[in-house]
Amino acid sequence: MSGLNSTSAVVAGFATPAMIDTRIVQALLEYTDGDLADVLMDYVQNGALASYQSTVSTALGLRPTTSELPTVPIPAAGKFLGASPTDVNEIATQYVTPRMCGLAGDGVTDDTAAFKRGLEMGVLQGDPTHTYRIVSDISILNKSVRFLGNGCTIHIDGDAKISTKASLTPVQAITLVDNAATYDWSGDTTPRIMDTAKLSVGSTIGYATDDLVKVFSDDLIPGENPADNLKIGEFATVSHLEAGKLVLRNRLRDNYVTSPRVARLNRTLVFEMRNFVLRGPSVPNAAWTKAAIEIIGYVQPVLADVRGENLVDRAIRFLSCYMPRTYSVSGRGVRTSLANDAFGYLIQESACANGLHIGLEGYNLRHLYTCSATGASAGSAFVENYGKTRGSIVLGGRGYNCQAAPFSTHADAEGVQFAACYGEAPFYGPAGDQRVFAIRGQRVRVLVSTAVGGDGFVVFADTAHPDCTRDAEIVDCSYYGHPNQALNSVVDRRAFSVVGLSGGQVTGVRIVNPKVYSEGSDNPSFEVFFGEMLITNPYVRARLGGTNTARVFEVNTQATIRVEGGGTLDLTGSTSTATRIARVLSSSGSVYIGRSPGDALRIIAPPGSVQSIATLNGVAGTFVGFIDLATGLNVAAGLESHTASGATAWLDYAVNQGRGGTSRAALNTTTTATGLVAVDLANRCAPEIYLDIDVAHAGVELNSLTAGYNLGQKLVVRNRSTSGNSLTIKHNPAPTSPSGRIDLTTDVLLAPGRAFRLRWHSGGNWVAG
């Protein structure tokens, strides 16, 4: 035995039989390389085990408190069941063997009743050679559930589930929710005024300081479909009691108006199931719709080392649990419908808070992880159905060949995070898109994660409500396109996208340091419908194909993309001859690239591969951009198809910026009527501006320009008429618009293909030059 190498070192200070925390025992077991069981057995037989607080916690540097950690009694000497104990749980609580509860474990016998009996007796330990066949529901109410499978198999054969529930009691009506209260907290020498909520209740009997409670009401969750009856609720901690009031440690997040109520969670009950295979039915039935394991109302329930196979609907569901935990849970072939091959969920959280799910893995699923609320009728006694899922973290998940999305949230999600997750090759299925990350809800984050193929990172809304989805953040994430499945918005394959609805715009989406690696694509890497996307420092390595549609940024109706912090677009190896860096498809669409020349997007591409920096596609949309053409591209046009009245489009771009090159700006516009024309230069700051005008009608006269950006700025006006019409630049000593006079001695007539140079003069006018 290493570490604590003597009996006295481990048990000195133990006096009388008392309570011992199972996690302390587990820590000691690991610390002593597995020899702790023998050491403790000597003292159990002598009745000498007692409090671990003094010596054991000091030796290990642990400082748990009994209010934080559940404790179980150490059995008296001679009370261990079975052979000599080799597992910590044999020491810490009642140990139950399959033989003791009557489990056959042959995979044929109905073990339902025996399995339930074993769970209720104590810590049930499976046999690695056994298969326990469950053919009907197992329901356990208000008991601790602990199962150590040791590699055995639980066969859910039929429309059955294992459901355990820790009731939330007592349920009390709240007569007043004061969510703007304060109290003077004097826990140290300096009193502090704390923000809090105070709940006025009929009685505080049964409540105490540090109780964990759930507050809920019949108000609907904002952003969800009202027809679904999804209602608000959240967990909170009691600070202290006042006369007829529960004083909480913090203010509540939601506003509880309609029939507010409160109930207390039972923190003494334990749920833990480990190390087993969870197998689905031998004869599947498309009508089965139950989660194989359902955990309701527990605090810190744990599932670890579980492998799910061929289950129906959902493998594991947490409902109204606080801090649920899963470790190394995997699954495959979970289906919600066998009739049309619709796949189901591995992990589902409903009305939970602060979950942690490490090492999820699976394939042939709908979702590896999802959270979705459950409906509740007004005044429902089933309080567990109330509330959003908040603050859960999925860490290191891996989902392959999933239908819809391996990583998913619904509009009830708030503050859910995915970190270091990986999804590959999603596919279409019944009512499911081929997404990797499908994000709905508020303040959902995806961090340092990767999508390979399909529709990579999608932030979307499915109800016409502004709170359905907002303020998502995607940081340091990468998308790798499948070489034989290029990005294609027609079949929903984009790297990063925002998809809202009319009345349900997706706002506040921030994408930081995204990386896109795409081949053979002529479709956008970044796309927005009914929403907004802020992109910081993107890197796009794209080998674009096609002749007239290739683009990187695209916006449609009521959509905005903003790019800042520089970034690089590397098109080396592209075969496209008509790439548009950005495309605006709607008069309510806008693309902004950079805030200044120093914030420009750097473009590396073969000469002639870029048709234009942006196209407004014949609509009165908006494009504003600062571009660094790092390799001196032969750009045919800066902006094109600027044909609609009311459009705003301007572009500053530099060739070999910072390397002795030139800086210029370009604007394409098409006249839509005869007569006088005024052009807004939109305060372009490039030293040289190219103004290309497609004169669509005879008799067009340019008589007014807005002011130049600085003295000496040059303006080249070019007649790009495709119909043979000339353009007249009017001499205008007394302009109709005072912002930028064209000061010439006579009119200038430009034939198609001809150009004329102007210069911004200190007199506040444009002169020949």
List the helices and strands and how they pair.
Elements: H1 7-11, E1 19-21, H2 22-31, H3 36-45, H4 55-60, E2 71-73, H5 88-92, E3 95-96, H6 98-101, E4 106-110, H7 112-121, E5 123-125, E6 131-134, E7 138-141, E8 145-156, E9 162-165, E10 169-185, E11 192-201, E12 212-220, E13 231-242, E14 245-248, E15 261-264, E16 271-279, E17 291-296, E18 302-309, E19 314-319, E20 325-332, E21 335-337, E22 342-343, E23 345-350, E24 356-358, E25 361-363, E26 367-371, E27 389-390, E28 393-395, E29 398-400, E30 407-408, E31 413-414, E32 417-419, E33 422-424, E34 435-439, E35 441-442, E36 445-447, E37 450-452, E38 455-460, E39 469-470, E40 473-475, E41 478-480, E42 496-499, E43 506-512, E44 515-521, E45 526-529, E46 531-536, E47 539-544, E48 551-555, E49 559-564, E50 568-570, E51 579-584, E52 589-593, E53 601-604, E54 610-615, E55 622-629, E56 637-640, E57 648-655, E58 663-670, E59 675-679, E60 688-694, E61 700-705, E62 714-719, E63 727-729, E64 741-742, E65 748-750, E66 755-761, E67 765-768
Parallel strand pairs: 3-5, 4-6, 5-8, 6-8, 7-9, 8-16, 9-17, 16-18, 17-19, 18-20, 19-23, 20-24, 20-25, 23-26, 24-28, 25-29, 27-31, 28-32, 29-33, 30-34, 32-36, 33-37, 34-38, 35-39, 36-40, 37-41, 38-42, 40-43, 41-44, 42-45, 43-46, 44-47, 45-48, 46-49, 47-50, 48-51, 49-52, 50-53, 51-54, 52-55, ...
Antiparallel strand pairs: 1-2, 10-11, 10-15, 11-14, 12-13, 12-15, 13-14, 21-22, 57-58, 62-66, 63-65, 66-67
